[in-house]
Amino acid sequence: MSPNINETLITLIPKIPSPTSLNDLRPISLCNVIYKIISKVLVNRIKQVLPRLIDETQSAFVTGRMIANNAIVAFEVFHWLKNKRSGRKGAMALKIDMSKAYDRVEWSFIRPVLQRFRFPQNFIDLIMACVTYVFFSFDINGDISRHVGPTRGLRQWDPILPYLFIMCADVLSAIIRREIHTDNIHRVKVSRGAPQVSHLFYADDSIFFTMATMDECIQLKNILGKYCWYSGKSINFQRSEIFFSLRVEATSRNVIATKLEVREASNQTKYLGLPFIIGRKKKDVFQSVLDNNERRLLAGKREIFQ
């Protein structure tokens, strides 16, 4: 692919009003129109087969699946965990946060993933050309820097980015399914007729459900470590949280949380923008959602009138 086609300008968008470090800035890739047409053509081909390739636990960017699919299942499990009093074993939910999820993906990991999905070789070569033949320049205070060649990562706002990302994330689903098949970890079941649930993904938002035992805790940590080693991703343990059912003793909670290097979640912890636990005071729980929507509507009105 010609360098002129895949030349990209990076601009940094602040995440907070007064950023003080690079972690407070979001890099956005501004690709040219010709590249976006090429990428969009490849995306349209991938979208046709994606529902048959990606595990049903992933609800992002797959035709026919919505964010509400995972949200409903997750909150039913959280409600069950909060009220679980029967059974000899307790259960837990681990919510992990991937650090710079898109920027850390190894290119050497993408090709075997595409080959595993049995895409034609020429199609894989086209995708890898879009990913690897990239030249970045940076917009810093209005000045454009010289070109830089990256060695890994997927570009923000690239049309093909989310589809490659969820195909890579499906590898983690495959590892979990294999461990379930060998009884190394166990899924949770909220009622007799309900389906068993082990994990739910929405792009880089991941949550895992297992029995709250040290053996399954170690196994889950090994799975995540193996996936991060292969893919190049890294878990942000400071923003990851764990939620236990009532049957888990305080000593076991501390040991498991320490082993996984995460903190125990509170009732205010959110998943997909909504709190884990919804009590009787629903107005207080959803007030932040209403405030965010109102703020966005006001911002949109200001842009229209300006």
From TrEMBL:
Residues 1-276 form the Reverse transcriptase domain. Transmembrane segments: none annotated. It comes from the Eukaryota. Keywords: Nucleotidyltransferase, RNA-directed DNA polymerase, Transferase. CDD domains: RT_nLTR_like (cd01650). GO terms for molecular function: RNA-directed DNA polymerase activity. InterPro entries: DNA/RNA_pol_sf, Retrotransposon-Effector_Assoc, RT_dom. This is Reverse transcriptase.
